[in-house]
Structure formats: structure tokens, C-alpha cells
Amino acid sequence: RTIVIATKNPGKAREFNAVFATEGIQIKTLLDYPELPRIDETGATFEENARLKADQIAAYLHLPVLADDSGLMVDALGGRPGIYSARFSGDHNDAGNNAKLLYELTGVPAAERTATFHTTLVFAKPERPAEDLVVEGNIQGQILGIPRGDNGFGYDPLFYVPALDATLAQLTVEQKNQISHRAKAIEQLKQKWRAWIKA
Ligand code: ITT
Ligand code: NA
Question: What residues bind Mg(2+), as annotated (predicted)?
Fold first, then answer.
């Protein structure tokens, strides 16, 4: 069985691979299909953006496609960057996005630096596009003033999880996959798949 993950983000690809490898499901990503056109994320919500990615790639490849749209909501920033997390600093660049986040939170005390990381997943089957599956997952944390850890990607070095006394970048991919926003969404998806296969 092959599923295409509609992502060009190697960090996401690594996490999906680590989960699905143990399930006997083979993963491809858009990194395996460099000829596909870019999908413009013009939606107003995570779900709309994930659906844009899933439906367009499923139509191109005629394969089942799972799309991930994720983002960081920082309470002190009124929920920003949210759906604009990938482009927060103006271009799609982790270092720039993290620098922008630190700058915007200058002087905000630790107790007020609470944040939520969110993932929405949309699973689309090319033969039944109206019957896609939508799931989501969240994790609460705090935005540090100084990055910690070298694992993960994106905002992980700044996203501190108090219960673990670690940032997401201080976890192995297996540890992150026990607790993350993305892992929770994937768990929901697996449950829906089970119900769907039985139906
Ligand atoms: P695709 O659309 O190709 O999947 P993307 O990186 O553009 O890749 P998003 O639109 O979901 O993905 O953007 C989310 C932003 O948040 C982007 O800057 C990511 O690097 C970052 N991000 C997503 N998941 C993350 C995670 O688990 N930990 C840290 N940062 C994450
Ligand atoms: Na996005």
C-alpha cells in the first residue's frame, strides 16, 4: 500500500515515515514528484489549505493523498502566526521565522508566552473526493527566549513542553511522535480508517 503525503517539508516527511513504516504502509512525498506544480495555499483555515493540497495532488497522481497543514498560535500575539506560520517572516525559512517570533515576543514574560501547535490532516481518495477524512491535533507549550535542541524542524527549538521539561527539538522523532500535534492527528486518522475499513 502506498500513500502520498502532500508535503515538500522534509521534517514532516520524516515524522510521517517514522509512524507509517511500523504499519507496513509505504510513504511517498512531493519530494518524490518534483515535476508537480506548486499548490497555492489560498485557504482561510488549516482545513481549507490541507484540502487544497490533498485534492489537487490526488487529482494529479490518482493515488490516495494525505495533506498536512500546521501552524503555531501564540496567545500574546492574538493567535498569530496561525495559518501564516510558514511565511511569518516574509519567506519560507525556518531561521527567519524563528527570529521574527523572538522579536515579536521581546519583553513578554515567560508566563505570558503560552502557545498552541496545531495540525489538520485531510485524507483524500481520488475515486471518492467527496468522502475525504478530516482530523486534527493540538499541543500546548511555551515559546522560549532562546532556542534549545537540534532535532525536529521549524519552530521546534522554541516550543517548550513543560510536562517534559524539553523543547520539541530536544526530543527524538520517536519521542515527538508520542506527543505532538501531528501525532495526535495521525492517531485520530488511524481510528477513522479502522471504522471506515469495517463499514
Ligand atoms: P507543506 O505545505 O509542503 O506541507 P509547509 O512547511 O509549507 O510544508 P505548513 O503550510 O503546514 O507546511 O506550514 C507550517 C509552518 O509551521 C512551517 O513553517 C513549518 O516549518 C512549521 N511547522 C509545521 N509543523 C511543525 C512542527 O511539528 N514543529 C515545528 N514547526 C512546524
Ligand atoms: Na500552510
Answer: 40, 69
